[in-house]
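Input record (Table S2, row 276):
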Amino acid sequence: MVSTAVKVLSDGVVKIDGGSLFGQVPKVDWEANVVTDRKNRVTLGLNCLLLQAGGKNVLVDTGVGSKENDKDRDNLGLVPSRLLKGLKGVGLTPKDIHAVILTHLHFDHCGGCTRLDRTGTTVPTFPKARYYVQRSCWEEACKPSPRHSRHHRPEDFLPIAERGQLELLDGDTELLPGLNVIVTDGHTKGHQMVMFKHGGERVVFLGDLVPTHHHLNLIAISAFDYSPEATMERKRQVLNEAQKQGWLVVFSHGHNTRAGYLERRTEMSILRPVEL
Ligand SMILES: [Zn+2]
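Output record (zinc ion complex):
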């Protein structure tokens, strides 16, 4: 498959504590480039991807969705879910989605997988889709360690299995010709990025391996990462490769800057942004 259309669809924004977002990098090192609010929160995008090829509509990640309670909505600075509006804008309804690929199962990536129906039951948002996630990621999310339990909400993903729409993957997989998932681990067990061809280009959706262009700094790794050392090593490899091969990289949490090409000017890669 050569992807015939690709579009970044936003599910809105989430506000995350700046300290948690950059891990061990102190605020003095990033405050000149990143805006915080009075609670020290940074506004992040909730970026999803829509790929259309061979008559299939494939969604990568689903944002936070619309099941949040008022307290979370306030703490996280959420706006009502935008993903379905974005789909409508390109003439699609939830029934038109054939596959949903999840980079991992943190609530800000899989909350939109399910929704409350009129009776208050949580059901899959995309009734005809197969949902793809790594088995190791699924197992960890179902029994998370105390450090990670607040990032996982069973109601975001258990209904997918209950309705028989879950596809568990064991390692790197070509899901459609030219559309691959590649396991990176690091951020979560079984975290995966998504790579595909678009025209003559290779596009990679990095998930939370590199959530924003501010995380091109190798040691800027969120406090949420399951294994920061693994994230750093994989990030080094992937960024090197992306720069050498001229891949178009897409960031899951870029707010104003969501995609671009990497250029090496100093030790650190810098981004030449593009709109997607
Ligand atoms: Zn995330």
